[in-house]
Amino acid sequence: MSIRRVALLTAGGFAPCLSAAVGDLIERYTEVAPEVEIIAYQYGYHGLLTGNYVVIDEEARKHAGTLREFGGSPIGNSRVKLTNAKNLVERGLVEESVNPLEFAAEQLRKDGVDVLHTIGGDDTNTTAADLAAYLKEHDYDLTVVGLPKTIDNDVVPIRQSLGAWTAAEQGAGFAFNVIGEHRSNPRMLIVHECMGRNCGYLTAETARRYHESLDSKSWAPSLGLTKERWDVHAVFLPEMKLDLKAEAERLKALMDEQGNVNIFLSEGAGVPEIIAEKEAAGEEVARDPFGHVKLDTINPGQWFAKQFAGLIGAEKVMVQKSGYYSRAAAANDEDLALIKTMCDLAVDSALKGVSGVIGQDEENGDELAAIDFQRIAGGKPFDITQPWFTELMADLGQSVEPAETAPEH
Asked: How far, in Å, CA of 331 to CA of 99, rounded?
């Protein structure tokens, strides 16, 4: 396949892999196909719709490796859903009666793009597949190769999404300082809220890393410095049944014994209960262009804190969110190795004209491959029966039962 121009695009929320992935893709093309021109759309699909891109020149290629040292995205992200025409018209990105998908596809044709690399979640990558399908129907071949970016690690059927390991590591470090506040007041309740709309992976992995990190610390019980006070005392995930009464009894006993309680909470935990409570009170629940409940408007962390504070007799409550701190971090060594492997295969697949999302295929022995877009989906739940998670929960003394209803999307 003859390739003249490749386009890069990052979209959705940030994850600790975007900068490194952009850098690795540029370096790989420069290494194996230096004659191929590379452009980068600014702010994801927003830039595609507006025709806003930059050309990756020789100077940019020379310094591409520097991107591994940074988080965020050097080429910018946005939350643009090409099938939500009403929202795009309101934002001035397309005219009334224009089909945004067709408009974006024609922009790719106009820009002479042969390969589109999308770094994003399931919406980002499946939308890119729709663009390719449209162009193919109109006699224009576009190869689309996606990379799975999400700190939620919830893309079907991919074992490990880029950035999730780093986000968990960063969240654990964030939690250590936050939980340092546990002796700032008698009977202190601390809620550490992690991102994870409908998948509890990030919260679970963050709690695991934090819990295990305490084993490397030295403690001085006679000075009040105990592992028990610094530890995780409860983990709440969207996939778990919420039994407020039973958990309150267990946590009140801890509060009475040691004077503090530390909770790790997924932002999607308890959302069905919160929505039901608000709607029963006649309140409208706000949603974003993708139809997702705007979690900042219902504030799960504050809701949980309010519920437990009264039930366990907390005198002071603190709720802290690590999401933005974690998701904009530079990738750690674990993720950098995975990003490098995936980017190499992404470029190789593109040069062969093979479309798909690069990932370890859980349904095919975890083989790293370009997975057909038809098999890509979001909302993969976290498996709460995994041995490492059940062992963690046993350490905490918390029972685990599956949720009776699916998490709110």
From this structure: 37
Strand order across the 367-371 sheet: 53-55, 37-41, 5-10, 115-120, 143-148, 356-361, 367-371
Known catalytic membership, residue 24 = no
DSSP per residue, 10-43: E-SS--TTHHHHHHHHHHHHHHH-TTSEEEEETT
Q: How far apart are CA 201 and CA 156, in angstroms?
A: 13
Q: How many CB atoms are closer than 10 A to CB 63?
A: 11
What residues have CB less than 8 Å from 149, skipping those under 6 apart? 10, 12, 15, 17, 18, 21, 119, 120, 121, 124, 161, 162, 163
**What are the pLDDT digits (tens) for 204-258?**
999 999 999 999 999 999 999 999 999 999 999 999 998 889 999 999 999 999 9
320 with 192: CB under 8 angstroms? yes
CA distance 156 to 162: 13
With a CB cutoff of 8 Å and minimum separation 6, the contacts of 205 are 153, 164, 165, 168
SS3 284: coil
Annotated catalytic residue within 152, 154, 344, 361: 152
